[in-house]
Amino acid sequence: MSGRNAQHDNGRVARVIVADDQSMVREGIVLVLGLLPGIEVVGAARDGEEAIALTAELAPDVVLMDLRMPRCDGVEATRRIRSEHPGTEVVVLTTYADDDSLFPALRAGARGYLTKDAGGEEIVRAVHDVLDGRAGLAPAVQRRLLEQLMAQPQGRSPSRGRPAEAAQDGWRGPQHGESQPDGLTERETEVLGLVADGLSNQEIARRLGISTATVKTHINNLFAKIGVRDRVQAVRYAYQHGLVAPPGETVT
Questions:
Q1: With CB atoms counted within 10 Å of each terminal CB, which end of the chain scores lower, N or C?
Q2: pLDDT (tens digit, 9 = 90+) per residue, 166-220?
């Protein structure tokens, strides 16, 4: 079973297994992925046990994993695949985005998490994000994860970021003309804020009236400046440094 053998922007074709217990859903995902560039579907599994067996046989780059399946659910299958086959990444593709589904899957080793309303382009992007060492998270999932992370007490270096006492006085955010942390430009700070709001590159481009390629350039530059590898780390940085209002707070 194979998809269209077209290449992604980085020249790599990702070999993918699709795991879903519902035959119509599974076959539909395989069909969609077969029409998209940068993906080669090499197998399809009906449950977690079959996903593990196919991973051992085919050594795919990525498994697109449903969570609620018979015999072996997606969380356990993810844990075993990441333990036994560390060269294979897992991107969850599920109907559910609740905490009871999200966090166990991430703890099991999934580096991506999408809901089944994701478009084909979003799935391809998540697959290649995890292969490039980044998190492949849907914007809503990214936001939820960051809300949980920011709710936990975090140590903070006094020389970096917004002082804790400033947070208690109410968030005011960066003002025009003020210096930005780590040498970020005002435009890069603006882009980072929109990333933190859960916007995709295309949505940021429309919001700012610039091209998607320019958005990608800004994101790559700001990632390098602040020393992060993916959007989750970047959003956490934005919250910690007072560049956006923390969840539950409003701009004053």
A1: C
A2: 333 333 444 444 446 678 888 998 898 888 877 778 888 889 998 888 888 898 8
Query: What architecture does CATH give domain 145-240?
Result: 3-Layer(aba) Sandwich (3.40)
Task: Render pLDDT for 183-192 as a digit per residue (tens, 0 to 9).
Answer: 888 899 889 8
Is 59 within 8 Å of 85 (Cβ atoms)?
yes
CATH number among 3.40.50.300, 3.40.50.2300, 3.90.1150.10, 3.40.50.720, domain 14-137: 3.40.50.2300
| HEC readout, the chain | CCCCCCCCCCCCCEEEEEECCCHHHHHHHHHHHHCCCCEEEEEEECCHHHHHHHHHHHCCCEEEECCCCCCCCHHHHHHHHHHHCCCCEEEEEECCCCHHHHHHHHHHCCCEEEECCCCHHHHHHHHHHHHCCCCEECHHHHHHHHHHHHHCCCCCCCCCCCCHHHHHCCCCCCCCCCCCHHHCCHHHHHHHHHHHCCCCHHHHHHHHCCCHHHHHHHHHHHHHHHCCCCHHHHHHHHHHCCCCCCCCCCCC
Tokens 């609620």 correspond to 68
What is the pTM (predicted TM-score) of this model?
A: 0.60
